[in-house]
Design a protein that fits this description.
Strand content: over 45%
Strand order of the largest sheet: 2-3-4-1-5-8-7-6
Mean pLDDT: 94
Number of strands: 8
Low-confidence stretches: none
Amino acid sequence: MANPFVHVELNTTDVDKAKAFYGKLFAWQLEDVPMGDMTYTLIKVGEGTGGGLMKHPMAGAPSAWLAYVLVDDVKAATAKAKSLGANIITDVTEVPNTGWLSILMDPTGAVLGLWQAKM
């Protein structure tokens, strides 16, 4: 399938509470990974699309799940989304040693992440 969903991320107001809840609800393996001045928790689900959770980067915003779609060229896909009426929330940003992401809001108000992995 072209452009599959490849990562689902919880941006939460309370990381510890979210980790306790999802750790007990599902048999997910949670692994904390230091990333500069923050910690990112990988969600390892075995088969299927994995994800992560982190402290919500937007102060005052409610906790929310964010899905990421795989693209071949995140810069081109972000520009195309903008030309189609998307608002770019986070422009293309490198995740060291992993890939690049951008986050957009589509013309209906839905938020979506784009992901290009390093090969």
